[in-house]
């Protein structure tokens, strides 16, 4: 939606900028997904600010709108095309903080004001079209990601990446895009990895763990120490072959993060190795945190699942007992769990834990009789 100062300027802009922009947007892997609409002159002249732009975008049912004006001016005796551009993009409702970040990206990357010498306008308009194309696809990619269309976002980012490879030099906006694209791809891979883990929690299908591993392996090395990556790698290492020491190694790299999740993971892994003393030590640390109901449910479900999967790992009844007692506050279930643990012990194994469980059951029973326990 570009307004021009006169008919001659409009002809130049349409031929050298708008037609070129249409061509580059329609090229690449995602070109066929673009429907390019040029707003008529009598409408474009009424679009003067962001509010007008959003109104027009709604009326035309567009997802992305570039608007502004082009006029000719003489500067230092030479004629220039002065281009003022702005843009808006549609997406599903997102948090204000995310919306603010998207607006900031837009402001930093879109060519807001350009002065193009008239004698060199063809080449300059082509460059401006390439610039606008990259920014448009990048911003639409972010909006698509925010709207949960991850596959389309990846295709857009890939198009921009391939386009940037054809440009040499250190043009600031292209440099910023090259710098930011790896983070955008990281967001895609980590989102898919989390979706795979969620699918596994719901279905317990092996294929979901395979997909989890594939997406984690696509994450660049520079993001390998991110908290979410380390947690997911620890889970994948356990689920995909019971690589216990590797899983523990990932969790131990999380010590700098003040969060209960890695403590829960380490507690689980230590219990798998029969080190219940270390396991309970981690659960005690978790008891000091304010933990969401979703996390509590996931932690409990994971232990219940391993007991079904590997019944010989009955030490998890001991962990469940402590978890339900000290963290979840379900005293009746804690009693049942400790009883189950004691009943399953064979060959004098876990002698110390058996004594502790017995003592804890007395303490829990006293609390229940005192009226401080949750009803069954």
Descriptive overview:
This protein is α+β, with helices and mostly antiparallel strands and 376 residues long. Helices cover 65% and strands 9% of the residues. The chain contains 16 helices and four strands. Strands 1-2-3-4 form a four-stranded mixed sheet. Helix 6 runs antiparallel to helix 7, helix 14 runs antiparallel to helix 15 and helix 15 runs antiparallel to helix 16. The model has no long low-confidence stretch (mean pLDDT 90).
List keywords for this structure.
alpha+beta; single chain; 376 residues; 4-stranded mixed β-sheet
Strand content: 5-15%
Continuous helix count:
16
Low-confidence stretches: none
Which structural class should the secondary elements be placed in? alpha+beta
Strands in their spatial order, largest beta sheet: 1-2-3-4
N-end to C-end Cα span = 66 Å
Globally, the shape reads elongated
Total E-strand runs:
4
Mean pLDDT over all positions: 90
């Amino acid at each position: 939606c570009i307004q021009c100062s006169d008919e001659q300027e409009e002809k130049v802009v349409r031929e050298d900028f708008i037609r070129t922009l249409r061509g580059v947007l329609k090229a690449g892997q995602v070109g066929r997904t673009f429907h390019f609409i040029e707003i008529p002159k009598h409408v474009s002249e009424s679009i003067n600010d962001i509010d007008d732009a959003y109104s027009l975008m709604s009326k035309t049912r567009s997802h992305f709108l570039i608007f502004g004006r082009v006029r000719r001016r003489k500067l230092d005796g030479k004629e220039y095309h002065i281009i003022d551009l702005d843009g808006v993009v549609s997406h599903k409702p997102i948090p204000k903080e995310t919306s603010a970040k998207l607006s900031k990206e837009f402001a930093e990357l879109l060519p807001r004001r350009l002065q193009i010498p008239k004698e060199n306008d063809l080449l300059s308009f082509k460059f401006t079209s390439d610039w606008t194309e990259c920014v448009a696809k990048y911003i639409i990619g972010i909006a698509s990601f925010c709207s949960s269309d991850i596959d389309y976002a990846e295709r857009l980012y890939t198009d921009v990446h391939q386009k940037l490879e054809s440009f040499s030099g250190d043009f600031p906006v292209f440099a910023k895009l090259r710098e930011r694209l790896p983070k955008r791809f990281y967001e895609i891979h980590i989102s898919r990895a989390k979706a795979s883990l969620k699918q596994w929690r719901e279905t317990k299908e092996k294929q979901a763990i395979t997909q989890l591993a594939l997406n984690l392996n696509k994450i660049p090395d520079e993001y390998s120490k991110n908290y979410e990556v380390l947690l997911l790698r620890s889970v994948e290492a356990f689920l995909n072959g019971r690589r216990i020491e590797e899983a523990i190694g990932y969790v131990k790299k999380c010590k700098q993060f003040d969060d209960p999740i890695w403590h829960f993971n380490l507690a689980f892994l230590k219990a798998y190795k029969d080190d219940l003393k270390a396991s309970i030590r981690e659960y005690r640390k978790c008891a000091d945190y304010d933990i969401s109901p979703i996390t509590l449910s996931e932690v409990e479900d994971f232990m219940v699942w391993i007991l079904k999967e590997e019944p010989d790992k009955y030490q998890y009844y001991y962990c469940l007992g402590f978890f339900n007692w000290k963290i979840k506050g379900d005293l009746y279930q804690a009693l049942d769990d400790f009883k189950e643990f004691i009943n399953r012990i064979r060959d004098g194994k876990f002698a110390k834990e058996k004594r502790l469980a017995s003592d804890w059951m007395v303490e829990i029973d006293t609390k229940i009789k005192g009226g401080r326990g949750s009803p069954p």
